Amino acid sequence: MLTMPMSEKYNLCFIEKTEYKKWDSFVDESPQGCVSCYSWWLETVCKNGFDLLVLRKGENIVAGIPLIYSNPLSKKFISSRELSPFQGMMLAETQKEKYSKSLSEEMETLKNIISQIPTGTRVQFNCHPNFANWLPFFWAGFNQTTRYTYICENIKHPDIIWGGLRSNIRTDINKAKKLGLNVAYESDFGIFWDLILKTYKRQGRRPSFTRNYLESIYNVSYSHNAGKIIIVYGRNGVPYAGLFYVWTKNTAYFITSGADPELRNVGASSFLYWEGMLDAAKVADRVNFCGSMIPAIERLLRAFGAIQTPYFLITRDTLPAFFKVLYELKVIAGKLLRKTGLRYKSLLGS
Predict the structure, then answer these.
(1) From residue 110, how far is each of 57, 103, 134, 315 by CA, in Å?
(2) Domain limits of the chain?
């Protein structure tokens, strides 16, 4: 790998741990940079290892992508991690005035770095909504699926947001206020996790992530002043609903939420999202709801006046047949374990 000859002007390499600060600065500056691409986030969620592939121009990083390994025994499976919004290709801000010149440079940059994504692998990652040019990936044999997230701008202007809400959402919020619901910024992760479990139980499912996994993301984001949990409580002190969100570069990302299904008819979820946006306005200009492709959730996000925004899921499968069979067996085994509850008992710790 990294055998392609480059000019003295450009250089392909992997970022060493000693240069993580430089990588994080690149994430800060890139229009496609997301909190889930910071080195501290990756170190927390990528227990099977990761590499940071970059293209340098002199000392500056002009493009980069995290190669996140999903199998501890092999680097043949590369995919974004769960609850990590966008971990795809990032580019430096262009300095070219002419569109044709900046696009030509972008094409060459992407072609160079894509050429070093290993073949004989299964690759899957979600790109940031600000990444629009997947054509070089197409030329390199990748596939693309358009997905949608919902983004709410102008959160620093609650009157504008309120005017964009559907009437039923405003009714729910007002109902919650009349019932005396209030929000608290919770440090007790256990309260939030209980709400997550209740949500999944109502759906007849179990979380696809463990408590330890989610709690580790919360702890590391909180320690970097980039994450918060909000809980909606009733007058009796009972938790109704909870939201975990993170933020960076003027964007807040609503990672996951949960609610008590026995207390669904008091407007708690609408009140939670409303208060979440008001709180996020202290650190960001917009909220990215991080989805969803699920119809019931999509309807709720649409009702909040959020704008439907496309992003790319980019994939390529060049795995040898032997590894494909092993992977399919692993998927089947995982489904069986979740169905029987064995995974729930052994991994979720409850």
Answers:
(1) 13, 10, 9, 15
(2) 10-148+312-319, 154-284
The answer for residues whose C-beta is within 8 angstroms of residue 21's C-beta and 6 or more apart is: none
Whether the domain at 10-148+312-319 and the domain at 154-284 fall into the same CATH topology: yes
Tell me the C-alpha distance between 279 and 301, whole Å.
17
- Give the CA distances from residue 132 to residues 40, 65, 159, 312, in Å, rounded to whole numbers and listed in that order: 26, 15, 32, 8
pLDDT in tens, 227-240: 999 999 999 999 99
Question: pTM of the full predicted structure?
Answer: 0.88
Topology of the domain covering 154-284:
Aminopeptidase (3.40.630)
The pLDDT, as a whole number, for residue 126 is: 96
Please tell me the CATH code under which domain 10-148+312-319 is placed: 3.40.630.30
Tell me how many helices (H) and strands (E) the chain has. Answer: 12, 13
Rounded Cα gap, residues 82 and 71, in angstroms = 14
